[in-house]
Amino acid sequence: MSNELHHNIVTLPNGKVASGVVTERHDMVLLFDAKKANPNGDPDAENMPRIQPNTLKGMVTDVCLKRKIRNFFSLYKTDGNLKDNPESGYDIFIKENAILQQLMEAAPINASAKRIFIDIYKQNETAFKKGNEFWDISHRDALCQTYFDLRAFGGVISTEGPLKGSFYGQVRGPIQFSFAESLDKVLQLDATITRCCSTSEKEKKEQEKQSEGDEKTGGNRTMGENIILTMDSIERISIFLLPSLQKPALLILIWIIFFLQ
């Protein structure tokens, strides 16, 4: 890991390097705007923007922000360049179409866990006497070393796989987000949109029957909806870095700040 930053957005404090360990707690506030957009649709409400019913303020979940950061690290290296090949230690655990049990039982993870277990044994010869406990620790550490989002945000990896039912399958990440809330009330617009084609021959016949030969409403035209926030929304989200849970590298904190800008 490089000790130098490739950008000038963040200045390292005196005596700090990018590969150093964060030892101080950091509390941050991020403000971002949503202009004529749907910042975080609600699947339980036909993907409408999330609005708190009692305050009418917009809301964005912490999961939504973490997803954006995961996607960023899946595309870019820590030096800011696009990835040609996977970067060691920065793979993504929670990704589209993934089967988590297969990821946890993958051969590279098992091999890494064995190396970590041997290192533990060299420092503590009682490791073999407490084999199951130290093996769980080794497997957890191997997963955290491989997957950036698991060691940054944490996760539950004790439901299936080699850590099923294990205490060490509860990974607490040092970087946590609150739900974002807009500073002011928001108003959503349900905009009807049209499409100049049909999905199937059956839909085309139904459209022709409904239009009754009207050229303006006939053809293969179909209708849809696009729901957005009509008012410019400033969203506020709190971010906490708690090094007491793990010891993240300073570079991770720098990249989170860089991404959010």
TrEMBL record:
Superkingdom assignment: Bacteria
Q: Region Disordered: start and end of each range?
A: 200-222
Feature: compositional bias, Basic and acidic residues: 200-218
Q: Name one GO biological process term.
A: maintenance of CRISPR repeat elements
Keyword Transmembrane part of the UniProt annotation: yes
| InterPro entries per the UniProt record, alphabetical | Cas7_Csh2/Csh2
Give the UniProt keywords, A-Z.
Answer: Membrane, Transmembrane, Transmembrane helix
Transmembrane residue ranges: 237-260
Q: Which residues form a coiled coil?
A: none
Report the leader peptide range. none
Pfam families annotated for this entry?
Cas_Cas7 (PF05107)
Q: How is this protein named in the record?
A: CRISPR-associated protein
Which organism does this sequence originate in? Candidatus Brocadia fulgida
